[in-house]
Amino acid sequence: MNVSEAIRTRRSIGKVKPDAVPQELLERIIEAGTWAPNHKMTEPWRFFVMQGEGRDILGNALGDIQAAGAGDTSEEGIAAARESGRTKAYRAPVVIGVAVEPSTDPKVIEVEEYGAVFAAIQNMLLEIHGLGLGAVWRTGEPCFHALMNEAFGLSPNGKMLGFLYIGYPDMEPKQGKRQPAADKTVWLNSSKDV
């Protein structure tokens, strides 16, 4: 499939089969991420590939975050939160956490580091689609929680920017639709156009 087709046909696939994804495909997905553009060539991305019981790292972090926010500090409440988090981590046979570790070089603009990692995620999603796999990019408050940083050994400046839940699709993708690009575009051909 060509790039234009991949961009226009890729969809979030939230339901995947439990079948294992071959290691060589996972390596191709990660490698695609490393080819994202990044200012000053800092390569600020970090990848955490979780399979099997390795998904417990994510599940336990989600459970801890959920328990911390629920206010239920009883043993049963913490156990229920942990189980809920663990269940979320097992929705796909492979989960890849993608984080940013911004450069500490004062010449590097931090927001550009985030942009590079978001571009890496898009590369990965397109590679996943091109390989015939399905994925959904999950984010939300738990990604940015200090306990998530701790679980994955990120620095205080680092941030988990999302989790790619990957597997063989077990659903039909929804029809994609976007507003016409013309509705979001301003053409500036001279200074009088502003």
From TrEMBL:
<keyword id="KW-0560">Oxidoreductase</keyword>
<protein>
    <recommendedName>
        <fullName>Putative NAD(P)H nitroreductase</fullName>
        <ecNumber>1.-.-.-</ecNumber>
    </recommendedName>
</protein>
<feature type="domain" description="Nitroreductase">
    <location>
        <begin position="7"/>
        <end position="168"/>
    </location>
</feature>
<keyword id="KW-0520">NAD</keyword>
<dbReference type="InterPro" id="IPR026021">
    <property type="entry name" value="YdjA-like"/>
</dbReference>
<feature type="binding site" description="in other chain">
    <location>
        <begin position="10"/>
        <end position="12"/>
    </location>
    <ligand>
        <name>FMN</name>
    </ligand>
</feature>
<keyword id="KW-0288">FMN</keyword>
<keyword id="KW-0285">Flavoprotein</keyword>
<dbReference type="InterPro" id="IPR052530">
    <property type="entry name" value="NAD(P)H_nitroreductase"/>
</dbReference>
<comment type="similarity">
    <text>Belongs to the nitroreductase family.</text>
</comment>
<keyword id="KW-0521">NADP</keyword>
<dbReference type="InterPro" id="IPR029479">
    <property type="entry name" value="Nitroreductase"/>
</dbReference>
<feature type="binding site" description="in other chain">
    <location>
        <begin position="137"/>
        <end position="139"/>
    </location>
    <ligand>
        <name>FMN</name>
    </ligand>
</feature>
<dbReference type="GO" id="GO:0016491">
    <property type="term" value="F:oxidoreductase activity"/>
</dbReference>
<feature type="binding site">
    <location>
        <position position="39"/>
    </location>
    <ligand>
        <name>FMN</name>
    </ligand>
</feature>
<dbReference type="Pfam" id="PF00881">
    <property type="entry name" value="Nitroreductase"/>
</dbReference>
<dbReference type="InterPro" id="IPR000415">
    <property type="entry name" value="Nitroreductase-like"/>
</dbReference>
